[in-house]
Design goal:
282 residues, alpha/beta, six-stranded parallel β-sheet, two-stranded parallel ribbon, disordered N terminus
């Protein structure tokens, strides 16, 4: 936990296009990983540092979904940036404090962390004191649902319960507004997004690759998942909003989505895990 330090989070710039990167776990400098993390979705501390250097070299402002969601319309006198980047981190694992926070802090970059209150304090996850310290350090702490249940497997009442319990618990514990929901597993559709907005969320994030326009009414905000096998070239293409690279990623995502529907969750998850591990080794 960072003690005796506070920093105001960077305020949202005006942006025509925003690109959100999605991270899960980052190994520490000794190579240790979060005990609950999937190897395929875990990158090394050196990889993360190199990627943050690429973000810095790109020269685009970095903000958060929660700040960008506050902006509607052009503010008088505000500078309009062509591109803005967002760094998001799912699951609230221990590495988000041990490794991620300090690298962001050194570079004066804001991060947005989506947590499940049911997991806070468990082995391998952040505690409420640690999350409070991260919030004080200028990071945005938002909702990943209450217990990491897939929203598309719940009825309306179950979805609303997950959304409301998560937001209330985080707000009560941290004393900051929770306005953004990131769906576990990216399992979200337009109807679930509408429910989230109906109960007070201002933005909903998925995991379909792409970019978005903050001033437009977007049902589900796309995010580009960074995995162990993600190359520097791919990352640069996403940051530069290269249409072909984003289209390739989106196409892969849709193929996997169709495979999940046809094979069922258990078979699909086993095949996906095997494929991601293969990709990470090459």
């Amino acid at each position: 936990m960072i003690r005796g330090v506070t920093r105001e989070r960077l305020k949202a710039p005006q942006a025509r296009i925003a690109t959100a990167l999605l991270y899960h776990s980052v190994r520490d400098s000794s190579g240790r990983k979060d005990p609950t993390a999937d190897d395929a979705c875990t990158i090394s501390a050196q990889q993360f540092a190199d990627q943050l250097d690429i973000v810095g070299e790109a020269g685009h402002p970095v903000s958060t979904v929660s700040d960008l969601a506050e902006v509607r319309g052009m503010r008088r006198g505000a500078v309009m940036h062509e591109r803005v980047l967002v760094l998001t981190f799912d699951d609230g694992t221990a590495s988000h404090l041990d490794t991620v926070l300090h690298m962001l802090w050194e570079r004066n970059l804001p991060g947005e962390f989506f947590v499940n209150p049911a997991n806070v304090g468990r082995r391998g996850f952040l505690s409420w004191n640690e999350l409070r310290g991260m919030s004080s350090a200028g990071m945005s702490i938002q909702s990943h649902g209450y217990s990491h249940r897939y929203m598309d497997e719940l009825d309306d009442a179950g979805v609303v319960d997950e959304l409301l319990r998560s937001r209330k618990t985080i707000e009560d514990r941290l004393g900051q507004a929770v306005t953004v929901f990131a769906a576990p597993g990216g399992r979200v559709n337009h109807f679930i997004a509408a429910l989230a907005r109906r109960v007070g969320y201002k933005a909903v994030c998925g995991s379909r690759p792409g970019q978005w326009r903050p001033n437009a009414n977007v049902s589900v905000i796309p995010r580009n998942a960074v995995r162990a096998g993600t190359t520097e070239r791919e990352l640069r293409d996403w940051i530069d909003s290269r249409a072909f690279a984003l289209a390739v990623q989106a196409g892969r995502y849709e193929v996997l989505k169709l495979a999940r529907r046809l094979l069922g969750d258990r078979t699909y998850d086993n095949l996906r895990r095997r494929r991601l591990h293969d990709d990470a080794r090459h």
